[in-house]
Specification:
Blueprint (H helix, E strand, L loop, with lengths): L5 E6 L3 H12 L5 E3 L13 E2 L9 E2 H14 L3 E3 L3 E5 L5 E5 L3 E10 L3 E3 L5 H5 L5 E2 L2 H4 L7 E5 L3 H10 L5 E5 L9 H9 L3 E4 L2 E8 L5 E8 L4 E6 L2 E4 L3 E3 L30 E3 L11 H23 L18
Parallel strand pairs: 1-2, 1-8, 2-5, 8-19, 10-17, 11-12, 11-17, 12-13
Antiparallel strand pairs: 3-4, 6-7, 7-8, 9-18, 14-15, 15-16
Helix pairs in contact: 1-2, 1-7, 5-6
């Protein structure tokens, strides 16, 4: 005997997924949330969060996620630890397989699986994340006021992050493996004119060195022209080599942009498949903030609720009036 069909299943347990859970649970849709491989998303590796509304003294990422989860649980959200490993969106109810074992069926699906910053792959990078290592200048730049900061990368993202950091840091040094930037001309001109900006060309990060109190103390760098290594004192390093949305499961199923982000219908969270909605960083290559993710999580929940309500009123033409669901069509 098959398990009953859910009204809504949510993939992801960051701000987008948890906000969607709170709203759908309060709408009595009894959501089931699959937490994902990294429960809580990127906020779980974030220390101080000072730009999320409602916390005048700031809050660390993990407690913020825990409070959101408690709120979703309070209204009746069911949480499943694990990762979605298979999805079938070819017919409704949709089918989701968790960790290759448990199968769920659902009338609607909210994808809030997020995105991850591309990192250098160093052990020290993960160990010191949130302790001087960051992948988000907008999130963490404030903490580096008067400090010596480095940014890794050479594209628009790196130059934009570095330029933003000059509002706070004494100096911002851009580390790039090439001898020219890949950023747009206007971004380059802005960077070269900035008196706080410095550049280390044809240079790679070999290691991130731990200093006092378990925080970053410096960088071990290599000059790629002569293979010589050297140490640069550093208070912080920002990795700005791009982001990658967690959408590998949906390639060939949903319409994605050239970078792999889910495309949604303007002014909604509706994807290319009716009944499938997307929220948070998985569909947002621009803002990537906890508060914007939470906002789209709210939107996805309301879209899913309205979709299910409209669908429940659809009847065959001979029996009565058919209610349109054009709002949800791609």
């Amino acid at each position: 005997m098959q398990d009953p069909v859910n009204d809504v299943v949510i993939l992801g347990s960051g701000p987008a997924g948890l906000t969607a859970a709170i709203y759908t649970a309060r709408a009595n849709l009894k959501p089931t949330l699959i937490e994902g491989a990294q429960s809580g998303g990127q906020l779980m590796i974030t220390t101080d969060v000072e730009n999320y509304p409602g916390f005048p003294n700031g809050i660390e990422g993990p407690p913020l996620i825990l409070e959101m989860k408690k709120q979703a649980e309070r209204f009746g959200t069911t949480f499943i630890a694990g990762d979605a490993t298979e999805v079938d969106l070819s017919a409704r109810p949709f089918t989701i397989v968790v960790d290759g074992e448990k199968t769920l069926r659902t009338k609607s699906l909210i994808i809030a699986s997020g995105a991850r910053a591309k990192l250098l792959g160093l052990e020290s990078e993960s160990r010191l994340m949130g302790r001087g290592v960051s992948a988000c200048a907008t999130c963490d730049g404030f903490f580096f006021r008067g400090k010596e900061v480095f940014v890794v990368g050479g594209g628009d993202t790196a130059v934009e992050e570095a330029t933003f950091l000059t509002r706070f840091a004494n100096t911002v040094t851009l580390i790039h493996r090439r001898n020219t930037l890949r950023a747009s001309k206007i971004m380059q001109d802005r960077a070269f004119r900035n008196p706080k900006m410095k550049f280390l060309w044809e240079t790679a990060v070999v290691d991130i060195l731990e200093g006092e109190f378990g925080k970053i103390g410096g960088l071990l760098l290599k000059n790629l022209k002569n293979d010589q290594t050297f140490v640069a004192p550093a208070d912080g390093i920002f990795i700005a080599i791009g982001h990658e949305p967690n959408t590998s499961l949906f390639q060939g199923n949903l319409t994605l942009d050239e970078r792999g982000y889910i495309i949604t219908k303007p002014s909604t969270t509706q994807t290319s498949i009716v009944g499938v909605f997307a929220a948070g960083d998985v569909q947002d290559p621009t803002y990537r903030q906890a508060v914007t993710a939470a906002g789209t999580g709210c939107m996805a929940a309301i879209d899913a609720e309205r979709f299910l309500e409209a669908e429940s009123h659809i009847v065959i033409p001979t029996a009565g009036i058919v209610m349109p669901v054009d709002r949800f069509l791609p």
